Amino acid sequence: QKKLFELRLKMNEARKANQTAMVTEKKRMEAPPESRGVSKEKWIEERKKKIGKLLDANGLDMTKAYMLDTEEMAETKYKKWEKEPAPFGWDVFNQKSLYNAYKKRTKNIDVDIEEYNKMKEADPEFYREASSLQYGKAPKVSDDKVERMVKELKDRDEKRKSFSRRRRFHDEKDIDSINDRNEHFNKKIERAFGKYTLEIKNNLERGTALPD
């Protein structure tokens, strides 16, 4: 019982030490208040400098800062994006839209974990850094994967060709109505009597209609 009691004391001490370390780390990472003598702007500048050093160490620039995010940070960021409205105009080319397009294109892809692990074990520099001499080189891809990629591109092309957005108005069409209800009525009249009045319409447009 004495040993068990001592073990529990050590566990409690270790837990308290971990909690203290977590609180200290959190305070260090959070922006300090103005009362401590360090402004929030200065803290942001120092944080930017730290991020800049990390980017330089990995051979990246500020446009690639998102590559330093962990998986949890990225998921949290993307969940926030999902609550925002749909992109409009030039926003269709932002990071959110590109990420959504990537998810849509890869959701039907089957990943072979065993083959992935074999490739990772066979290549000591599977995760290459910018300073690696193998940077930019890709492992040999099997023919079936190339065929699958080609099929996906062809399917996208066919889907793009078959896509047709319904438009409310046609610029090339003559306006012969004063409101939506009148437009609907004119369409019904045209379906019923259009073939009988076609010659009269053409004569009126050409100016060759003769009075009775």
Automatic annotation (TrEMBL):
Keywords tagged on the record: mRNA processing, mRNA splicing, Nucleus, Spliceosome
Keyword Aminoacyl-tRNA synthetase: no
Basic and acidic residues: bias regions: 24-41
Keyword Nucleus: yes
GO CC annotations, alphabetized: catalytic step 2 spliceosome; post-mRNA release spliceosomal complex; Prp19 complex
Domain of life: Eukaryota
First-listed, main subcellular location of the protein, grouped into a coarse class: nucleus
Gene Ontology BP terms: mRNA splicing, via spliceosome
Function statement: Involved in pre-mRNA splicing.
Oligomeric and partner information: May be part of a spliceosome complex.
Family recorded in the similarity comment: Belongs to the SYF2 family.
Name of the protein in its database record: Pre-mRNA-splicing factor SYF2
UniProt organism field: Camellia sinensis (Tea plant)
